[in-house]
Specification:
267 residues; 7 helices; 13 strands
């Protein structure tokens, strides 16, 4: 088993590794290769690429993401080896909090590595999208003068310093502004389109805007107001689950202020 850095030359090899039901993983690994805060790795067995994964390092936290092993090479310790290598690299950077979102398939590996489950995400869908959006005078396009406010709002809710991640996606953001104060934001072009808000009316207004045209949603189980709105919009729960897991020091974050997650790789 050989573990090494994943590079752009490996992108064309990973299509067959995509688990059933997952979206295309190649754009994600293109992002990881190009982003200086991401450190993707690969595992080769007898010259064949059989496993991949990445670490994502922020100011005071790190994420593990897209840890995938080829179906014909499972139960050989490859997934555990990827997790161990990524954790070792993160520890070398003196980052004390490591996070991930686990599928049912991956959860036993992460528990074995010392992770603990801290929260569950709810997955929902509906059959009839394209509802007429609810107009709200406080939902407006991004204004550059609010950039630092959005960074701070993201820090307050996520408990992480993620400017390197969200900075490039603010230009097409929708923000909830009331009396010149930003209470929430929606980033439609960052993965699934996160919505963060520290005011319930702001979060629900941004959800109403987003889900006028979307037919899938993922939201923390603690966000009861958001779940209620999704049900009112015709969403129903599906059996799929995702579990936020933690290794190391907990971080001060607010799940009830997350009205839509970024994706399985960033929470």
């Amino acid at each position: 088993m050989e573990i090494s850095r994943f590079t752009s030359e490996d992108l064309h090899k990973i299509g067959p590794l995509k688990p059933e039901g997952w979206p295309d993983i190649i754009p994600d690994f293109e992002f990881y290769v190009l982003s200086p805060f991401c450190f993707p790795i690969k595992v080769c067995l007898d010259g064949e690429l059989v496993g991949i994964g990445t670490s994502i390092l922020f100011e005071n936290s790190a994420w593990l993401a897209h840890i995938i092993v080829a179906s014909h090479s499972r139960n050989k310790g490859i997934g555990s080896a990827i997790v161990k290598e990524l954790i070792t690299q993160i520890n070398a950077k003196s980052i004390k909090s490591i996070l991930l979102i686990a599928t049912d398939l991956g959860k036993p590996i992460y528990l074995k590595a010392g992770f603990m489950e801290v929260m569950e995400y709810r997955f929902l869908k509906r059959d009839v999208p394209n509802i007429v959006p609810r107009e709200n005078v406080h939902v407006v396009n991004f204004d550059e003068r609010f950039r630092q406010d959005l960074y701070q709002l993201d820090r307050d809710i996520s408990g992480e310093g993620r400017e390197a991640l969200i900075g490039d996606y603010l230009q097409d953001a929708k923000i909830y502004v009331k009396e010149n104060v930003v209470y929430g934001f929606y980033l439609p072009s960052l993965k699934e389109g996160l919505i963060y808000a520290n005011l319930e009316e702001a979060g629900l207004a941004l959800m109403a805007y987003k889900y006028a045209t979307m037919d899938k949603a993922v939201i923390p189980a603690q966000n009861l107001a958001g779940l209620t709105l999704l049900q009112e919009l015709g969403f129903v729960a599906v059996e799929k689950t995702g579990r936020r897991m933690l290794l190391g020091d907990d971080i001060d974050w607010n799940a009830s202020n997350v009205y839509a997650r970024i994706g399985g790789n960033f929470g």
